[in-house]
Design goal:
about 475 residues; alpha/beta; about 30% helix; disordered N terminus
Length: about 475
């Protein structure tokens, strides 16, 4: 028990030292229509921030910004214009972070870095340098400086086949360019220690990531890398070429941080993938599902572990003219998500963090739990999450019938989350944190109508009476019959 509380204290100290904070910012509000349902964009007035106590540290919420290639086509003037639009989107996100108090983990391609350095904009990243509020690392697409690009600004050659034969050249050219953002502000090349994803993979990725000893032309040793999507905990891993095939391996030198739990924007680039719907209520659903899992660990006194919820973003998806897959401007919906988080979860169940904060939290946990895995071994060797709320997850996250959050509210010391799907079917999850309400009943007949199943976390199901629902500490799901 002493080790568990030590981890909590150390984790909170890491977040505090890194400048994590909450607090809401004005603006937003109202309601919009999604899939035929009216979705509240602000909490019900009766809803209060979650109150929690237990062993678990708060969920670390990270904003993961991929600064993808720009200006690879057309004349120099056209390339500079494209860079300017990406830069304005980046500066807008920084402004939002200042208002809403979230933190940005930016991973820059060498192509964007070249524009920044050669236009004197490296100071855009002053707050991303070591020891400051945000962080900067490297992200690569399959571009390198070929013979035809020698002596030409903003010219790169692309390898559309993502060949391993060009990977070393791609890493050398792009990492070296990102390093200049650090050195031009008085920092070391080796301060660039975060590597988040690459389209091209070398024959020996561990060596390319700088595992000592190495013979790379760049000095960087990337200690933190991208983790498998939709996982709730960081883990130790090798430098796999495909994070989906990643394995938890305590003998490896890299810490993998899952950074893609949600994305705002449009689906055409990355595909829906069951999570990247680019819309506010789907992202809210994804966060609520992790919160419910986290809450289960709290209430059942399970051993402490580091938690993370990652939001992926790209400059081209947050430009002022960008319309998300929901038909709404992303510059309107993204701030609303942070207002919702600040009002309901930040400072209690969650805190803002960078990928480095999460990596450091894992190192602290690892020191207190030597030899322990965060994920149960699977027969395939791949990481498989062992969710305690799997029954809720299966029913609210189910392909074309996948549900989104409509609203949430408190009624008679019971918290209710209402969901809907594109067909209009309503679902609800409810629970209580009040011991006096356990084993009593709840009336939701004024909010829901029709025939419902009541489903417990164990998967047991029975007919529900909406006017007399049993109240429990663990969440229960109301699903249409």
């Amino acid at each position: 028990m002493k080790r568990l509380f030590s981890f909590i204290i150390l984790f909170m100290m890491l977040l505090a030292a890194a400048g994590c904070g909450g607090g809401s910012s004005g603006g937003g509000g109202g309601a919009v229509s999604y899939g035929g349902s009216t979705v509240s964009l602000t909490p019900d007035p009766a809803t209060t921030p979650v109150q929690v106590s237990g062993l678990q540290p708060p969920i670390a919420v990270i904003m993961n910004l991929h600064m993808d290639p720009v200006g690879t086509m057309g004349a120099t003037e056209a390339r500079l214009k494209e860079y300017a639009t990406h830069r304005q989107a980046f500066l807008w996100l920084k402004e939002q972070a200042g208002r809403q108090k979230f933190k940005i983990s930016a991973e820059c391609t060498g192509l964007y870095a070249e524009f920044a350095v050669k236009n004197g904009h490296e100071a855009d990243f002053s707050e991303f340098m070591p020891g400051r509020y945000h962080i900067l690392g490297t992200h690569t697409h399959s571009h390198y400086k070929g013979d035809a690009d020698t002596g030409q600004d903003y010219h790169w050659t692309e390898d559309p086949g993502h060949s391993a034969a060009t990977a070393d050249k791609i890493f050398t050219d792009q990492i070296g360019m990102v390093n200049q953002i650090f050195t031009r502000q008085g920092f070391k090349e080796t301060d660039n220690a975060l590597f988040h994803g690459s389209q091209s993979h070398s024959a020996d990725m561990a060596s390319s990531m700088g595992t000592p000893p190495n013979s790379n032309s760049y000095p960087n040793f990337f200690t933190t890398i991208e983790g498998q999507r939709r996982l709730y905990h960081p883990y130790r891993s090798g430098a796999e070429t495909d994070v989906i095939q990643g394995k938890e391996d305590l003998s490896q030198p890299f810490i993998a941080v899952p950074t893609s739990s949600a994305l705002f924007g449009y689906n055409e680039v990355h595909g829906a993938e069951g999570m990247l719907q680019g819309t506010l209520p789907y992202v809210q659903r994804d966060f609520v599902l992790e919160f419910l899992e986290w809450r289960y660990y709290q209430n059942h006194g399970l051993p402490a572990r580091p938690w993370v919820f990652g939001i992926d973003e790209h400059p081209y998806q947050i430009m002022s003219q960008c319309i998300g897959s929901d038909g709404k401007p992303v510059q309107e919906t993204l701030p609303l998500f942070y207002e919702w988080l600040n009002t309901n979860f930040i400072g209690s169940a969650s805190q803002y963090a960078t990928i480095t904060d999460v990596s450091n939290a894992y190192k602290t946990w690892e020191q207190l739990h030597p030899g322990e895995l965060l994920y149960p071994p699977a027969g395939t060797g791949k990481i498989v999450a062992d969710l305690k709320i799997i029954e809720l997850y299966r029913r609210l996250f189910a392909g074309e019938k996948s549900c989104f959050l409509v609203r949430h509210y408190d009624t008679d010391s019971v918290r209710v989350f209402e969901f809907a799907n594109d067909q209009g079917a309503r679902h609800a999850v409810y629970y209580t944190d009040d011991p006096a309400r356990i084993s009593s009943t709840l009336d939701l007949s004024s909010s829901l109508s029709g025939a419902y199943h009541l489903i417990s976390l164990s998967g047991s199901s029975g007919e529900a009476s909406l006017s007399s629902l049993p109240v429990t500490q663990d969440p229960q799901l109301l699903s249409p019959r």
